[in-house]
Amino acid sequence: MALAANYIRKSADVVGVARNGRATASIIFLHGLGDTGHGWSSLIDEIRPPFMQFNCPTANTMPVTLNLGFQMPSWFDIRSLEFGGTEDEAGIKSAASSVHGMINNEIKAGIPADRIILGGFSQGGALALYSALTFPEKLAGVIGLSSWLPLHSSFPAAKVCPDSLPVLLCHGDSDPIVNHKFGQLSHSILKTFLKSTQLKTYRGLAHQSSPQEISDVKDFIDQCVPHP
Length: 228
Hints:
- 29% of the residues lie in helices and 20% in strands.
- The protein is an alpha/beta fold and 228 residues long.
- Helix 2 (89-108) packs across helix 3.
- The longest helix is centred in the middle third of the chain and has 20 residues, at 89-108.
């Protein structure tokens, strides 16, 4: 499938270089529906190691079926909030191709694939999971916050990543938007074909992050991308 460059507006990327001036690792973090890269950039900047650069791109604005066709930043169309409901397969695959292009740009710039973290919140987390699983090289890890595994019925056949890809799923058990069961079901599926998948549940947390969740994300990054 052709690269859908329009899904990512390069002019809206929030990019941060390594604090010590020499990047040996990278994190690409994808925002949720209706947000922008700026919404997560400050937080990612706070928890990244000094040798890690970051990129928080903004999705293109498009109509979203779930929101009555209103236009907003979105990686792909969302048609249902039911696990197994109708999905925008073409849009998901096109957006994943764009993310693969971003990963390849990091590799071309000298960052090894196994020192690149891919993550995201909600819809961004869903895209991060799908993109990591369909990328042929092993990434350092993938993070899905309050998210789900899109096109889940296509796995494990669609998987091209190594079985050793580390995955961290984080989900509040009081999430009214992306139900906690989505995280649980995604975790159950991922465990059948990946060796290192964990789900952390946060009691009383809605569709948002928390200090404990962010602390767990930081620990995961530090564990997956050690100091050079």
